[in-house]
Amino acid sequence: MAPEFFMDKIKVCNALYMQGMIQLIEDATAPLLEAWENILDSAGGSTEIVVDDYLRNMSADVIARACFGSSFAKGEEIFCMLRKLQKAISQQDAFVGLSALWKHLPTKSNREIRNLVEKVRLLILELAKANVNENGAENAATHNGLLRAIVNGAHGAGHGGTAEDFIVGNCKTIYFAGHETTAVTAIWCLMLLAKHPEWQERARIEALELTMVIQETLRLYPPASLMMREALTDIKIGDLDVPRGTIVQVTRSMLHLDKEVWGPDAEEFRPGRFANGVAGACKPAHLYTPFGLGHRTCIGQNLAMTELKLVLARLLSRFAFSPSPTYRHAPVFRLTIEPGFGMPLVAKKL
């Protein structure tokens, strides 16, 4: 993400959050509710549902409508391409690490990645062009305002590179961060609630309890598992000397499962630890980092939490969930931490 565009996006995202986001999220959730109700009606009221793709499609629809002025149907091709690109990059990194040299070799996987990158680039530029033609320069404050802000920022000074690179890079970041991470969190949240029916009932009744459940899910399964920072000066971390310019990579799970910070039950699902907020759950509080820290805190944090609360509340008001005997617990890293074999859950109409 272009750093000089970061603060502009914060302003736009905050504006979007204040302008009808609740209704937008409810509109995007309606097809999901209808689909699951139809499945359960045809199965006599209870059956197994593999929830992954339903939640991804719903979350993709939210971010497309909110930021790019299109429904999921219009952006579906981009989302599918980005999903394929995510898997291809993750599989490559799993085998060869982050070697810059390997990524330039003429391998089959590299050709596939380059082909997907180019297809995504062309689709995003087509969407940006259509947005400009349809909406005119005066519509920066509407639900397609973020794309408008990106296009306007691409023609400003100081970001370096080409305007097209600027547009594509920022749109890819928002598409990915805006729907994949939220969907994965919702998936893990439903799994944990299915395994802990007492918390499922509490979350169904009280909004504060649901917020605690979401916070605990983000602690146990942080969707963006890695956090990277560049050392701006020579520093010392413990016994390690870190020269200026070094990229330091932190695994969030190491912070979130540290028993010295969270106590002996750090690996257990215990939402009650957040009853008094993050500051009451761990000390120091900055070791809880599902949305990052400092100037690089996720710009979509408010939107993500609002979406998770609304979607989960709607689902819990209509359905009860229990574990499926076909579920295999195998979290895998594919840029996000997600279920390796999908998330089948037994759903029942209330």
Automatic annotation (TrEMBL):
<dbReference type="GO" id="GO:0004497">
    <property type="term" value="F:monooxygenase activity"/>
</dbReference>
<comment type="similarity">
    <text>Belongs to the cytochrome P450 family.</text>
</comment>
<keyword id="KW-0560">Oxidoreductase</keyword>
<keyword id="KW-0812">Transmembrane</keyword>
<feature type="binding site" description="axial binding residue">
    <location>
        <position position="298"/>
    </location>
    <ligand>
        <name>heme</name>
    </ligand>
</feature>
<dbReference type="InterPro" id="IPR036396">
    <property type="entry name" value="Cyt_P450_sf"/>
</dbReference>
<dbReference type="GO" id="GO:0016705">
    <property type="term" value="F:oxidoreductase activity, acting on paired donors, with incorporation or reduction of molecular oxygen"/>
</dbReference>
<keyword id="KW-1133">Transmembrane helix</keyword>
<keyword id="KW-0349">Heme</keyword>
<keyword id="KW-0479">Metal-binding</keyword>
<keyword id="KW-0503">Monooxygenase</keyword>
<dbReference type="InterPro" id="IPR001128">
    <property type="entry name" value="Cyt_P450"/>
</dbReference>
<dbReference type="GO" id="GO:0005506">
    <property type="term" value="F:iron ion binding"/>
</dbReference>
<keyword id="KW-0408">Iron</keyword>
<dbReference type="InterPro" id="IPR050665">
    <property type="entry name" value="Cytochrome_P450_Monooxygen"/>
</dbReference>
<dbReference type="Pfam" id="PF00067">
    <property type="entry name" value="p450"/>
</dbReference>
<dbReference type="InterPro" id="IPR002401">
    <property type="entry name" value="Cyt_P450_E_grp-I"/>
</dbReference>
<keyword id="KW-0472">Membrane</keyword>
<protein>
    <submittedName>
        <fullName>Secologanin synthase</fullName>
    </submittedName>
</protein>
<dbReference type="GO" id="GO:0016020">
    <property type="term" value="C:membrane"/>
</dbReference>
<dbReference type="GO" id="GO:0020037">
    <property type="term" value="F:heme binding"/>
</dbReference>
<dbReference type="GO" id="GO:0006629">
    <property type="term" value="P:lipid metabolic process"/>
</dbReference>
<dbReference type="InterPro" id="IPR017972">
    <property type="entry name" value="Cyt_P450_CS"/>
</dbReference>
